[in-house]
Specification:
By secondary structure, this protein is an alpha+beta fold. The protein has 2 domains: 203 residues, no CATH class; 85 residues, no CATH class. Strands 1, 8, 9, 10, 11, 12, 13 and 14 form an 8-stranded antiparallel beta sheet that branches. It has a 3-stranded antiparallel beta sheet with strand order 2-6-7. Strand 12 and strand 13 form a beta hairpin. It is globular, with a radius of gyration of 21 Å.
């Protein structure tokens, strides 16, 4: 689900549909065995491991994922069977979607569910009709909520609407995070700003969700400080845009899909200022086929680039 604009109600419906077959359970380590990196057994049940689960179990076992994925199935099994017997925990926490393993954690760490985040937003006043921008798949959710009351203009009437962005991963790709957000109305490009006030929580709990209104208020106060950055970006000339973007791609370690998306985004509105560079990254988030995590990441890269700019 990659929407330029939708409503929280529709996001609720999509999350509910996606989570219909999802379940969690603690699994005794002694009941775990492996057929390969792709397939494991829990007692007498056979389960396919999704890539995130493969990566997480490799990390737990101390086996490099990129090494193991290149091994034949028999060698994968031998390695995994050997190291799982050295696991110190008696149980591990498994997240399933139907019979497939989504992710594996220790029993001490449980990522928050997307539905819990949505319910918390609803409880503090962001109801089903609230307009949002969303990037959502089975591994990652990013919801950005613009606040039209704080809109401002840059670059001869180009309207920018600030707001907040909340992101979460049920499978542990990232912790629950809250940050400032800016929506460019002309093209519905979204940008996650690098601000002094931001919040990211590794060990998510209901206590942290209860702090959400305080975090949102702090970020709202910080939004005003970002307006000047947009003005500076329109006044900062770039002599070699291609070289500049290639440098940023290396600096932020973009993968090939993300680089392709930036090139695609640049084609919509090339120009000679940092404002155009930033917009290449934020537009790239709309590139078809990107994961929700990559789309959100590109919006953050745009915000980080903007945050680097200083008045001359």
């Amino acid at each position: 689900m990659h929407e330029t604009m939708t409503t929280l109600g529709k996001v609720f419906d999509r999350v509910e549909e996606m989570s219909r077959e999802c379940k969690d359970r603690n699994v005794k380590v002694k009941d775990i065995s492996f057929e390969s990196l792709d397939t494991m057994r829990i007692g007498g049940e056979t389960h396919r491991l999704r890539e995130v689960a493969q990566r997480s179990i490799c990390w737990r076992l101390g086996i490099p994922y990129h090494y193991l994925e290149k091994c034949p199935a028999a060698l994968q099994r031998e390695n995994m069977e050997h190291w799982i017997r050295k696991e110190k925990n008696d149980e591990l926490f498994f997240r399933f979607d139907s019979s497939e393993v989504r992710a594996i954690f220790t029993t001490k760490y449980k990522p928050v569910d997307n539905f819990e985040v949505l319910e918390r937003l609803d409880s503090i006043g962001y109801g089903p009709a609230t307009e949002v921008q969303v990037h959502l798949d089975s591994e990652y959710m990013a919801i950005s909520i613009p606040d039209g009351k704080q809109s401002f203009s840059v670059n001869k009437g180009d309207k920018i609407t600030p707001g907040v962005s909340v992101s979460n991963s049920e499978v542990g790709l990232a912790s629950l995070s809250v940050a400032a957000f800016f929506l460019r109305l002309k093209c519905t490009n979204g940008m996650i700003a690098k601000t002094e006030v931001s919040a990211s929580y590794r060990h998510v709990s209901y206590k942290i969700l209860s702090e959400l209104p305080i975090v949102l208020e702090k970020i709202s106060i910080e939004l005003g400080a970002q307006k000047d950055k947009f003005r500076i970006s329109t006044e900062t000339k770039v002599e070699h845009p291609d070289m500049t973007m290639a440098s940023f791609n290396r600096q932020f370690a973009l993968n090939q899909d993300e680089k392709d998306a930036v090139e695609w985004g640049w084609g919509f509105e090339p120009g000679e200022t940092m404002f155009h560079i930033v917009n290449a990254y934020t537009r790239a988030a709309q590139f078809e086929g990107l994961s929700a995590e990559s789309s959100h990441r590109l919006q953050k890269v745009g915000g980080n680039i903007l945050g680097m700019l200083k008045a001359k």
